[in-house]
Amino acid sequence: MQTDNPLSAIVERLLKDGYGRLFSLRSLRAGQIVYGGDESTDGDLLIVRSGRLRCFTSFEGKELTLYMLEAGDAIYLHGGAMLEVRNAADVLLASPAVFRQLALAEPELALAVLPAVDRLAQKSIRMIEDIAFHGVKHRLIRVLCDTADRIGRPAEEGIVIDHLPNAEDFAMQIGATRQSVSTVIAELVRSGILYRFGGGSMVISDLGRLRRELADVR
To answer: In the chain, what is the greatest distance between 2 CA atoms, to the nearest angstrom?
Structure first.
């Protein structure tokens, strides 16, 4: 399990210290949808222990990704919350009463949850700002830079991103069509900034140049 995140480290310590019985541990399969507002989970704190989930909103058949949840992230479930499991995930649920009990036993838990929740709120605000003020190319380059920072590995060729999300996944993340995302990726490939590496991987040959593109494109 990831432990370089403050919240992850505290949760793992609580589990080892015997507080696991207070949490509700759920293993979620890829593709599963979790809805907030269920009487059994409404108001619960959800902490991601492993895997990846997408928080999104939907209207008249259209979806907009608000942010992605990964290990060490936390969200309060409410009536409007919709989560899609992108990669098989283990999550912990704590009711308000349980969270208060845990926070009394481990005050650092509350201090770690607040910035985790705030971080997701900031991601959601940035997504709305990007859609309102920036085009598809800017939004896609931002996601590519964020992905390189998060999971990219240095190599002789540049920054390698293994198992790169496909155009449809990127489209859902940035609120665009698959065709427009494919067009921008093809443009970046032609410019030499990106190229396919095989096995579903992609190389960013010059991350600094890609960041400069982000500054230049609106």
So the answer is: 56
